[in-house]
């Protein structure tokens, strides 16, 4: 038995979890496969906590913890605003998905998910794929977004991107009185799954695209699919003069450093947790006259799609519900204006109203 030394980080983790009102936090470790993961369940009031598993090279455990707590809270609000009977959860695997990921590591992770008895249901996220969902699915039933040939709903990214596109059109309606994106300049940060599909929608409507990514192979791929995109360097993304900035990479790109340099009218993208500090940075954007389409409202398409796998409805129905994100986004943008609050705050209030009314029903 090794010596026990109380760790300040451990205490901080628990206090952060309680402050953010999480129900459960699980640390998963397996020396044989090298698995180090955290699963956070924020809320199960509306239903089982569904959220993807991210694999990323976090600098340390504290960074991973912070990410998983914030991401899982975002999932609670996302499901609530989209009208789904789901709670919020998320998982992170600490490691380089290009180097450390193996089928056995994913299977082992699936065993940990299984032990949560369906309180947490996983799906893909940055650094994981539908093939990984297949490996996880060998050890647990509580996984969505498995390959179509295994009865799953497949890659949710096209549906997510379509929802982001619909939300972006709602923001355009609010900004310019027309949802038409033809001729608008959009800067897409991240040429991954969501960024690529989103680019397809925007180009077919006649938008001008500037795209960046930190990996050359991702740039090559988007160039092959859409030769008309203009490639820009990742460092120059924030001070591009453009109509719309679409963050489709990682979170916290809207912060003290970037917001003052933005030269766009709208921020609308697929990335989760775009605001480094939800109150402060939502307000900074509003003060600069930039319309922020809340990330968890407009990127709900993927969640709607994996929900279809649980409820047994078709991709067409998922697309129909995702189309409605236009109306939901516009409603939230109008509500923010009427109440004099930020668009993020309006979206959180919409989510909390639904969660609170269900919680009251449950205790009545
Ligand atoms: P992905 O891994 O396929 O793509 C992300 C891309 O961003 C990668 O190509 C990566 O190289 C690039 N990137 C990372 N840091 C960057 C930086 N600083 N500058 C430029 N590019 C950078 O992931 P994805 O599935 O496209 O998801 C993108 C975002 O959308 C994530 O935040 C994810 O959580 C969110 N999201 C995805 C879905 C979905 O259905 N895939 C659903 C909801 C939310």
- Enumerate the spans where pLDDT stays under 50 for 5 or more consecutive residues: 1-7
CATH top level class name of the largest domain? Alpha Beta
Our Rg estimate from Cα atoms comes to 20 Å
State the helical fraction.
Answer: 40-55%
Q: What is the average of the pLDDT values?
A: 93
Number of helices: 13
Structure notes:
It is built from 13 helices and twelve strands. It has 364 residues and is of the alpha/beta class. The protein has two domains: 18-78 and 86-150, Rossmann fold; 157-300 and 327-351, NAD(P)-binding Rossmann-like Domain (Rossmann fold), CATH 3.40.50.720. Helix 5 crosses helix 6 (193-204). 51% of the residues are buried. Mean pLDDT is 93; it is low at 1-7. Residues 125-126, 156-157, 160, 189-195, 212-215, 218, 234, 248-250, 270-272, 299, 302 line the site of nicotinamide-adenine-dinucleotide.
In short:
The protein has 364 residues and is an alpha/beta fold.
Write the layout of secondary structure elements.
Elements: H1 8-19, E1 24-30, E2 35-43, E3 49-50, E4 53-56, H2 61-81, E5 87-94, H3 103-114, E6 120-121, H4 130-137, H5 157-176, E7 185-189, H6 193-204, E8 208-212, H7 216-225, E9 230-231, E10 244-247, E11 266-267, H8 278-287, E12 291-292, H9 295-298, H10 301-311, H11 315-323, H12 325-339, H13 343-363
Parallel strand pairs: 3-5, 3-6, 4-5, 7-8, 7-10, 8-9, 10-11, 11-12
Antiparallel strand pairs: 1-2, 2-5
Helix pairs in contact: 1-2, 2-13, 3-4, 5-6, 5-10, 5-11, 5-12, 10-11, 12-13
The protein binds nicotinamide-adenine-dinucleotide.
């Amino acid at each position: 038995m090794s010596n026990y030394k109380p760790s300040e980080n451990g205490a901080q983790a628990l206090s952060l979890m309680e402050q953010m009102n999480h129900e459960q936090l699980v640390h998963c470790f397996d020396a044989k496969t090298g698995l180090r993961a955290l699963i956070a369940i924020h809320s199960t009031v509306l239903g089982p906590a569904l959220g993807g598993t991210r694999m990323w090279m976090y600098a340390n455990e504290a960074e991973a913890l912070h990410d998983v707590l914030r991401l899982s809270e975002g999932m609670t609000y996302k499901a609530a605003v989209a009208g789904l009977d789901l709670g919020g959860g998320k998982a992170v695997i600490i490691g380089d998905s290009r180097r450390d990921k193996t089928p056995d590591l994913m299977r082992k992770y699936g065993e940990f998910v299984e032990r949560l008895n369906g309180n947490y249901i996983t799906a893909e996220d940055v650094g994981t794929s539908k093939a990984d969902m297949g490996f996880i699915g060998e050890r647990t039933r509580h996984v969505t977004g498995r390959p179509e040939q295994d009865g799953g709903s497949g890659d949710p990214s096209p549906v997510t991107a379509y929802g982001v596109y619909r939300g972006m059109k709602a923001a355009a309606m609010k900004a310019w009185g027309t949802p038409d994106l033809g001729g608008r300049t959009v800067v897409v940060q991240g040429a991954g799954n969501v960024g690529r599909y989103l680019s397809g929608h925007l180009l077919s409507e006649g938008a001008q695209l500037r795209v960046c990514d930190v990996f050359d192979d991702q740039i090559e791929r988007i160039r092959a699919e859409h030769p008309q995109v203009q490639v820009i360097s990742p460092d120059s993304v924030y001070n591009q003069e453009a109509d719309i900035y679409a963050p489709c990479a990682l979170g916290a790109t809207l912060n003290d450093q970037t917001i003052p340099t933005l030269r766009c009218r709208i921020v609308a993208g697929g990335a989760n947790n775009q605001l480094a500090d939800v109150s402060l940075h939502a307000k900074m954007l509003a003060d600069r006259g930039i319309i922020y389409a809340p990330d968890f409202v407009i990127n709900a398409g993927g969640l709607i799609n994996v929900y279809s796998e649980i409820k047994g409805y078709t991709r067409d129905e998922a697309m129909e519900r995702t189309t409605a994100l236009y109306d939901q986004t516009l409603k939230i943008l109008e509500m923010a204006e009427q109440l004099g609050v930020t668009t993020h705050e309006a979206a959180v209030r919409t989510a909390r109203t639904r969660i609170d009314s269900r919680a009251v029903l449950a205790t009545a």
